Amino acid sequence: MFSRRAFRLLSPLLLALPACASSSTSAPPSSPAQAEAPPPDVPFPWEARPSTAAGIETPAAASPPVLIRNATLWLATGKTIPRGSILLQGGKIAQVAEGDITPPEGARVIDAAGKFVTPGIIDTHSHIGVYPMPGTVAHLDGNEASSPVTPDVQTVDGFWPQDPAIERAVAGGVTTLQILPGSANLIGGRAVTLKLRPALSPRQMHFPGAPDGLKMACGENPKRTYGNGRHAAPGTRMGNLAMQRKAFLDAKKHEDDWQRYRTTEANRIREDQKKRSAYEAEVESRKKQQAQCQDDPYFSSCAEWQKGWDKPLDPPKPSDPGAAPPRDPAKETLIGAMRGSVLVHIHCYRADDMLAMLALADEVGFQVRSFHHALEAYKIRDVLAKKNVSISTWADWWGFKMEAYDGIPENIALLQESGALPIVHTDSSEGVQRMNQEASKALASGRRAGMPLTDEEAIRWLTYNPAWALGIEKRVGTLEVGKDADVVLWDRHPFSVYASAEEVWIDGATVHQKDKKRPPWSDFELGQDTGRPTTLLPGGAP
Q1: Is the dihedral of CA 202, 494, 59, 542 positive or negative?
Q2: Contact 514/502 with Cβ under 8 angstroms?
Q3: Cα distances (angstroms) measured from residue 161 to each of 198, 213, 511
Q4: What is the C-alpha separation between 248 and 368, in angstroms, rounded?
Q5: What's the pLDDT tens digit per position in 329-379?
Q6: Where is the composition biased (Pro residues) (predicted)?
Q7: E-strand stretches of 350-461
Q8: What would the DSSP string read from start to end of 147-216?
Q9: In sequence order, what E strands does 65-154 have?
Q10: Which residues contact 320 (CB under 8 A, 6 or more apart)?
């Protein structure tokens, strides 16, 4: 206990202490853990940038379940079920079985005896929508040939969803396309992967979650476009590689600038948090001292503590953030390629050009996902297999320019035999209608040359391998439970020259029926065919 006189002497001080504490505390931490939390990462701007292929998930519930029974199922996993059933439900492949499946309530049941079911075909190389039909100058949006290096342009911004070629591709069993810029430029820009459903905007067709592609080109086209055509760089293959190398090195410097900025900002934030934590700790310490002295004014340290209370305690001010480097979408695209979030696809014909691009990739730090056209890939098939580079090519089209001179019909088969990843592509709004026949021709050429290729291997040239090249193999490319119901029913063996797609589903919804007249997808064709309904398709729904 202490005397009333002592209490009267200490009372003004005791009354001032709570006021001192309250005036000097602006935002105490909600918990000790919050005060000690590490600084948040300062994001790279391209990490916050949404992919052009963010996609829109379609409401699969609107489509009733579909059960296809008694069909030959080419799973594209290396296995065939000669007499099986497959259930499409909720936009996904719900069941795959040998024998029969009990249909769920309300299901549409198809007896497919004598018919075949495959995954939807995927074309890794298409210019549909950016070089649409009819081919008028007003519709030519595939090459931004104003500069040889344009990584910041995006095909999604030039795609015309009214292109009549889209519906014709679907009639050939194609469900997914990668829309690439053309090959006039060394670095042509971002490619987008689309699901082929009727839509008013290409963003309604985006394949959800598919990474963007980056189109590059080597060889004749860029040097012809700029050197021969304009007397500008590049005019040689030396110039091609030099300008591509410089573009990636400039992008790497941009990334380094951002990394330094992120490091500086993280350190600044960390120091600010340390100062804030020290301030909040001092506030708490004074509160405890004041409380102790109120309980026991004769405590020996009260007089010493009071000296500290007389000093003002102002909350620390946040330090000024440094200036961030300027944004550069072109460099950010190339950084994405080096980091693997943007997949690199390169137009290249000759073996030496492909080897040069692989050397450049190793030098500056990106992975080639697929060489396109690649007519001399068979010459370096061991290298391509070792590097895990896919080859998107034709079955038997070559000889139309000097770098396309040395093609052979066994190219795809030799790649398959070597353990590489061959892909049948089209680069054509006409060829895309018969991709099954292209695979059949490549298969026949390999067999004639003595290679024991199977149908199961060949169907992967159209399905799983291109899905892998586009980074979507976890969702499509095989008939497996849980994958998207992008499925084709063929009226006979798919590699027959007489085969046609009887029905095509995307996300479990019918987008093509051979024997049923449906409204045209493109308003360009309204009234062109008197045998078809003229009702415009509503809001992207078939």
Answers
A1: positive
A2: yes
A3: 8, 19, 15
A4: 14
A5: 999 999 999 999 999 999 999 999 999 999 999 999 999 999 999 999 999
A6: 315-327
A7: 368-373, 390-393, 421-424
A8: SSB-TT-BGGGT--TT-HHHHHHHHTTEEEEEE---SSSSEEEEEEEEE----SSGGGTB-TTPPPEEEE
A9: 66-74, 80-89, 92-98, 108-111, 116-119, 121-126
A10: none
- Could you identify the residue written with the tokens 């021969």? 228
CA atoms within 13 A on the CB side of 117: 32
Measure the CA dihedral 525/529/530/535, to 10°: -40
Placement of tokens 């070792």 in the chain: 386
pLDDT per residue as tens, the chain (542 positions): 333 333 333 333 333 333 343 333 333 334 333 434 444 566 677 665 555 544 455 555 478 999 999 999 999 999 999 999 999 999 999 999 999 999 999 999 999 999 999 999 999 999 999 999 888 888 899 999 999 999 999 999 999 999 999 999 999 999 999 999 999 999 999 999 999 999 999 999 999 999 999 999 999 999 999 998 799 999 999 999 999 999 999 999 999 999 999 999 999 999 999 999 999 998 898 888 888 888 777 777 787 777 777 777 889 999 998 899 999 999 999 999 999 999 999 999 999 999 999 999 999 999 999 999 999 999 999 999 999 999 999 999 999 999 999 999 999 999 999 999 999 999 999 999 999 999 999 999 999 999 999 999 999 999 999 999 999 999 999 999 999 999 999 999 999 999 999 999 999 999 999 988 888 888 888 777 656 666 555 444 43
- Where does 310-350 have alpha helices with state H? 329-339
Residue 470's nearest CA partner among 180, 245, 96, 265 is: 180
Cβ burial 508-542 (10 Å sphere, 16+ → b, else e)? bbbbbeeeeebbbbbeeeeeeeeeeeeeebeebeb
| Residue 496 and residue 502 in contact, taking contact as beta carbons nearer than 8 Å | no
Which residues lie below 8 Å from residue 401, measured CB to CB, with a gap of 6+?
220
Q: Cβ neighbours of residue 483 under 8 Å, at least 6 residues apart?
A: 92, 93, 474, 475, 476, 477
The whole-angstrom separation of Cα 232 and Cα 410 is 38
- Kindly tell me the burial class for residue 114, based on how many C-beta atoms sit within 10 Å of its own C-beta (0-12, 13-18, 19 or more): exposed
Helix (H, G, I), strand (E, B) or coil at 433: helix
Q: How far apart are CA 458 and CA 284, in angstroms?
A: 72
Do residues 212 and 190 touch, judged by C-beta distance below 8 A?
yes
- Can you tell me the distance from the alpha carbon of 311 to that of 53, in angstroms, rounded to the nearest whole number? 58
Classify residue 4 by burial, with Cβ atoms within 10 Å: 0-12, 13-18, 19+: exposed
Distance CA 344, CA 338 (A): 9
503: helix, strand or coil = strand
* C-alpha torsion angle, residues 471, 474, 477, 482 (rounded to 10): -160
CB-side neighbour CA atoms (13 Å) of 201: 8
- How far is 74 from 382, CA to CA, in rounded Å? 28
